[in-house]
Amino acid sequence: MPAQLLEAFSYFTVILNRLLAYLDRGVHYASGYLLYYCFHGLKPQTHTRPCRTQDGRVYSPSVVVTGASEGIGLAIALHLSSKGYTVFATAKDDAGLAEIKTAIANLPPSPPSTDGAIHPAIMDVLSADSISHCVSHIESVLGGDPDRPLVGVVNNAGYCMISPMELTPDSEVRRIFELDFWAYISVVRAFLPLVKRSHGRFLNVGSYGGFVNPPMWVPYCALKAAVEGMTRSWRLEMMPFGVGRL
């Protein structure tokens, strides 16, 4: 009998935990919209997509993609370009820049004015000076062009570490947090004034590791959970200014 009661109590706590999670999500979004209505005079977030205006101009809004020298970042940059966006594909060094240029050179030919331009740029997300220099470079390239506002930043740079926590040095744990968490914050802060101006969006690349926690992934799961919490909370702060997530 005690074993059956213990099992029933266990099921009850699981169900209660799930209900509280849904309640937390509901409160999260309700508070965000309440915050927006408190600042009703500010502009709402808008969806800005490439198009051709009535007077024939090509409207190609700009997006920054970090860690775009390979993998997911490169795929995102090429996809956005194929949809007509002007893309600033960043890499941390000249070697990464060369990989982006090679990928661009290998693209199949496309009809004129269907693809947006891809601008390779160096940005080491672990260096405040490099981030600041990249922001200035992008501002100078755009030159205040109303047809190419910066409407999005994709925080993608990072890496995955799989290792037994007991054998993982503290320095490696700090390193992955610096790249996959603190760098996200630095990039958002640096580009926030430009994105606010266009009521654009930020995309912080997360992972199922923030919700599902397999063994050997302790640092990665911890930081992705931190990214999820940071993104959800910061989103509420930016909603009144029309800034959101992709």
TrEMBL record:
Which intervals of the chain form a coiled coil?
Answer: none
GO biological process annotation, one example: steroid metabolic process
Recorded GO terms, molecular function? oxidoreductase activity
Q: Which InterPro entries match?
A: NAD(P)-bd_dom_sf, SDR_fam
Q: Which Pfam families match?
A: adh_short
Q: What is this protein called?
A: D-beta-hydroxybutyrate dehydrogenase, mitochondrial
Give the organism's phylogenetic lineage: Eukaryota, Fungi, Dikarya, Ascomycota, Pezizomycotina
